[in-house]
Write a structure and sequence with these properties.
single chain; alpha/beta; Rossmann fold; eight-stranded mixed sheet; 2 domains; globular; about 400 residues; 10 strands
């Protein structure tokens, strides 16, 4: 039973419309992320310092960031190399010396970012299609600026610094290209990039300080603090790094939504022209395709592939859980009338039992629902679509 004030905080968190700010949360706008306030409140309500929190669909890393600064151990997993890159950057502490080195590097960039400089083409990335749809009359100055900055990344002395700079460039590229009607100029892009570096440095400094404070406060001494795996959640129970690890106290996640079109792995440039450029900027590979990121094509009759893979995924989670593990997930549906009952049935088949907490109810079905205003999954869609309504589900292992 939750305390009354905790219940109120949880409801506020579920319905929060606050912008995603603070710590390292704003490093990249990952699709379908839930709010840091929701993650923070759930972790504080259902775990204690030193417990393990797991997010098997880690996305932008919100769960792991919050777990780290709250003194919990954190494990994430995602099939997308881009998601893992972003999460690792967000959860890597940087020292003041690291940040000073990055700022000095940025100060020396100006002369090398002139568009009149000879091009430094990323030939292999171009050959593999990673610059698709970003070389038009309007976008080529952004593409060339990206190339010029990326050519200087390796002059930073260590990988965490390089990845931080890549993430700042990724954030700026998303701002400049993704779902924009008007593409900014190269000079505007450069100014925004330097501004992002400074703002992200403040977030990194806050995260590093609070993570260190949590370590000192709770005297945590374990082989790992935060671990993010590039893999599917299916069969995650066989992952060697998890051998000997205690069962997670909390699994907090947002899985792919059934029948909902979400572009996890692309930007949309000037309409609905997709580009895999974010993978090129992050120096990672997009080797799967849209259906892999969403557990199947959204228009497949009955969503058979989706439900088969969700069954395998949550079956794997059930095998690493114990009777104390609580699974909290936020999910939405393109057609709730039939998809939601089927989803609950699959959870049960995977060995999980739904838990309805008497104090956490805002609907006649005994669950917590929330509406997301002006939900937008891709360039020309916006408004009150079915997936604007999300439900928060609680599950535990079924009794043997």
């Amino acid at each position: 039973m939750l305390k009354q004030n905790t219940t109120a905080e949880f409801f506020d968190a579920v319905h929060s419309r606050q912008p995603v700010l603070g710590l390292t949360h704003s490093f990249y706008r990952y699709p379908a992320r839930f709010s840091p306030l929701f993650a923070r409140t759930a972790i504080k309500a259902f775990t204690q310092p030193g417990d393990l929190v797991l997010d098997p669909f880690v996305g932008g890393g919100t769960t792991l960031v919050e777990a780290c600064v709250l003194g919990r151990h954190a494990i994430g997993a995602d099939i997308s190399e881009l998601a893992v890159f972003v999460t690792r950057v967000k959860t890597t502490p940087l020292s003041d010396e690291d940040l000073s080195t990055i700022h000095s590097w940025a100060d020396g960039l100006n002369g090398s970012l002139n568009l009149r400089n000879p091009p430094i083409r990323a030939e292999k990335w171009i050959e593999d299609g990673y610059q698709r749809n970003i070389s038009s009359k309007n976008t080529w100055p952004i593409r060339k600026t990206l190339e010029l900055v990326l050519a200087q990344i390796d002059t930073l002395p260590c990988e965490p610094q390089q990845n931080f700079a890549r993430c700042a460039l990724l954030k700026t590229g998303q701002w400049a290209l993704d779902c924009r009607k008007t593409i900014p100029s190269a000079s505007e892009f450069r100014r925004r990039f330097f501004t992002n570096l400074l703002e992200m440095s403040e977030g990194a400094r806050e995260f590093s300080g609070r993570a260190l404070d949590a370590d000192n406060r709770y005297d945590i001494h374990r082989p790992f603090r935060s671990l993010c795996l590039n893999r599917s959640v299916i069969d995650i129970d066989s992952q060697p790094e998890l051998a000997g690890t205690p069962a997670p106290k909390l699994i907090l996640t947002s899985p792919p939504y059934p029948g909902v079109h979400v572009l996890y792995h692309r930007w949309q440039v000037q309409g609905r022209r997709e580009t895999p450029a974010p993978f090129w900027i992050a120096n990672c590979l997009d080797g799967h395709g849209a259906s892999s990121y969403t557990f199947g094509h959204r228009e497949q009759p009955g969503l058979t592939n989706y439900y088969n893979q969700i069954h395998e995924a949550f079956g794997s989670l059930a095998r690493i859980a114990d009777h104390k593990t609580l699974l909290i997930q936020m999910v939405a549906f393109s057609n709730p009338a039939w998809q939601f009952p089927r989803y609950l049935q699959v959870m049960k088949q995977a060995g999980l039992t739904e838990v309805k907490l008497a104090t956490l109810v805002n609907s006649s079905d005994g669950r917590v629902w929330r509406c997301v205003p002006n939900r937008k999954w891709y360039a020309d869609q916006k408004g009150a679509i079915p997936s604007s309504r999300e439900v928060v589900l609680f599950h535990r292992l079924a009794q043997a």
